[in-house]
Amino acid sequence: MTRPAIQVRDLTKQYGSVLAVDQISFEVAPGELVGFLGQNGAGKSTTMRVLTTFMPASSGYAWVAGHDVMYESMEVRRKLGYLPESVPMYPEMRVEEYLLFRAKLKQVDRTVRTKRIEDCLRRCRISEVRRRLLSTLSKGYRQRVGLADALLSDPPVLILDEPLTGLDPVQQEETLGAIQDLGGQHTVLFSSHHLPDVEKICDRVIIIDRGHIRFDDRLSNVRAQAPVLVFDVRGPQDAVAKMLKDYPGVTEVHSVAGDDGGHGFEVHTRNGQDLREAVAKKIVEAGWGLRRVDLRRPKLSDVYMRVVFQRG
Ligand SMILES: Nc1ncnc2c1ncn2[C@@H]1O[C@H](COP(=O)(O)OP(=O)(O)OP(=O)(O)O)[C@@H](O)[C@H]1O
Question: What pTM, to 2 d.p., does this model score?
């Protein structure tokens, strides 16, 4: 069996009386691109800081590329590229100057240094700003310079803390593309609040909530879940809801916002049966206005909302 690129077992981190991470366990396989999600304060950065040897755990274990983060921190650092939430930089340096300085610090071999920097500039889509002073870069470019820095030593594992936060839509798209290109060649664990973006590029997502892992699955499994039927009906809300609930094969009905004047309903059916035509007919026969019929495939946001709202 292949050794996991990241392995976390019963990891706990306490800041004084604040229990930030409570006995979490998960693994990331080599080459996987995993989204690490959770509300503000859920414990994402804390987990990442322990994995990057930035701070020690209170208890439990973690290994990166097979090295213990506690006892083999130098080895872990050699195998790891880390993009922190806010990238510390030297404003008076030019982009390529900064990357050269960082490459020397990271002891990137002199014979491959120039090529490696060129490679990182290209992969992070920042070649056009290579001569610019860091102080004059927009946040999107700064983030990608930080990403290039994380990639300099060509580490097998990358940990990126909210690389998309605070970027405009174009910058977000550029940065997302750069991260997507890393998948397969590197193992990437990245935290984000941008669910549609995570959905676009990740193989798997882990959701942490109040220090506990609440969800850990492949996105293909999320998409394979039963679809939901959506109806917008102009009619008495309670009567419509009762008819839908009583319809054979329907297992759950939820009221949601409807289109102007109508009531929205999300309908779950046994084994994901597609009852659109049959239910629509029943609505029309009852004399109610049918404004919309739809079949919605489950999305990451559905899973996320369920996890966050169903917590105890
Ligand atoms: N240095 C610290 N001292 C005390 N408490 C801390 C410290 N850092 C984080 N915390 C607390 O630990 C908990 C987890 O914080 P963490 O920063 O890991 O969350 P997060 O999921 O990264 O949140 P965000 O999305 O806002 O970055 C929060 O309750 C936070 O207030």
Answer: 0.85
